[in-house]
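Exercise 3.2. Students should predict the tertiary structure of the chain below and write it as structure tokens, then compare their answer with the key that follows.

Predict this chain's 3D structure.
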Amino acid sequence: MAQTDVLLTKQPAPQTVPACELPRKLYDVARNTGAYTSSGLATAGFRTAKYLVDEWFQNCYARYHQAFADRDQSERQRHESRQLAAETEALAQRTQEDSTKKVGQRLQDTHCWKSELQREVHDLVAETDLLLAQKQRLERALDTTAVPFSIATDNLQCRQRRQHPDLVRDHVEVELLKEAELIRNIQELLKRTIMQAVNQIRLNREHKETCEMDWSDKVEAYNIDDTCARYHNQSTDVQFHPHSTKFEESASTPETWAKFTQENLCRAEREHLASANLRGLIDCILRDTSEDLRLQCDAVNLAFGNRCEELEDARHKLEHHLRKTLREITDQEHNVAALKQAIKDKEAPLKVAQTRLYQRSLRPNVELCRDTAQFRLVSEVEQLNASLAALREKLLEAEQSLRNLEDTRMSLEKDIAVKTNSLFIDRQKCMTHRARYPTVLQLAGYQ
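Answer key:
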């Protein structure tokens, strides 16, 4: 302190506010007002004061009671769980044994029905083969009618390509339409005749397929049930299928299952016993139809021959008129050329006369006189113009006549081409195609 006093050179300035002690802060302390009241204050949902001793004991007792209750409930649940596990294990074992037994019984029933279906399928196959042998001749006859029908329709289509005016409904077309209609009627008759045999074969095949489908389903079901019967708890290829217990809406009952197979077997046996002998009727129909077809074929061929003769005659006449028309065209062309030359020959005199008139119009003053020479030149020009007009008119008439002759020539040539095309269609296309017409033996179904 002595050293500090020595360093000071002057006294410190006095303070404006004298230093003094601050007053103590008063705190409002909460106090207990009863035996069971808390010694703290609760504000805004949480507690800021200490708990009482009674509250502490109450909290401990509550924890003890909760732990005891939880242990008691857990022991009871463990006991019930062991008991339930044992009961379910025994029930599952009994149920599995019973299910395996039921599946085995089902396997025996399925095997029995499967054997019956297999035997019936073999019988139907043998019967169908016998009916097919009877049906082959009818099929051959029906297939053979396709050739005449294709020939008739092809002839009609070829003749549709005839050009105007040869596109007419002549006697040949009438006979072809009759032939096509006859073939269609015969085909319908053959189809109706063989309908019973075809229907029987179809029914045999349908019931054979039905039995085969039933047999196939039973084989598949037998294999599935056999696989199911071999499953056990130690199988490695089993897994969970949560929705497998749901019954399908289309599932059958044992009664409907057995009835379905019984009905299939009864219908198959009934169709196996049903057979018809149509041999006599088939022979009569095939003989009559083959004769009718050959007669109609001859009628069509005769109509084709007559039509070709008519076309050939018409073409010869048209060619004769064409030759005369061509000669007249040649003469008319010479006439047109002569008229054109005559018109050209009048151009020089007209130029001379018009030039003279023009030069004379240049005469001066009184020399521009209407003398005899002037009148004669005017008359000459008028005469030449009249001659040219007459020649041009005659040239127009000659050219029009030439055009008419050309049109006639084109018409004749076109008509000749049409007749040639018609002859080609009837003779080369249709009649050549008709050479493939089947024989009577083929139409009767023997070949």
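Discussion points: The beta strands are 42-43, 46-47. The longest helix spans residues 53-144.
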